[in-house]
Design a protein that fits this description.
- By secondary structure, the chain is an all-alpha fold.
- The chain is 78% helix and 0% strand.
- It has one domain.
- It contains 8 helices and no strands.
Length: 234
Amino acid sequence: MSQRAERHHQHRDVTGGWLRPSVFGAMDGLVSNFALIAGVAGGTGDTKVIALAGIAGLAAGAFSMAGGEYVSVASQRELALAEIAIEKRELERHPEAEQAELADVFVGQGVEPVLAAEVARQISLHPDTALAVHTQNEIGVDPADLPSPKVAAVSSFLSFSVGAILPLLPYLLGVTSLVVSAVLSSVALFGAGAIVSTVTARSWWYSGLRQLVVGAVAAGLTFGLGNLIGASGL
């Protein structure tokens, strides 16, 4: 009696087009706008100027991130589709050679030659399956699971905006001290790093502290630069 193999574990999605831009967008928005606000605050005490800089940083960064991710992922997708098209033509023009090539791949992975040839033959009977197996083995992509430029762009835009608005929020609510923004941003940096640990192998405290240190160093250096420029009267 045949039965389906029981799956005892599940893996997280490590190839989807949403995770990297979302994580990077939120971190970048938080760190860059916190640093920008700190730099402007170091050069001037005018809260309207600081808030305006924060708003401009949020808008410019969000649109830049979305546009950059869209072009980047679209270019990656177009390259993959071009290579898939080449492989598809080869399968149509030289099916025997491609079947022998696939058998050699299986032999290289430890399968006995006779069995490898039979598996390659059976796979080659189904064009879509054959194309998927060949592209995965030769160029490392799955034709049915290519990243989406739109998903990457929207994920980047939204996540950057969420990250960037946190250090700006106190000023929008009428707070005039950088300390409040710094405390809120520090908590958010640590929290964001801790959240990232749920999709990595790092502990929550290590990821949180790492992100906090990166953001604090960036903001501290930018604040010092703004203070220096403001003091010089430029």
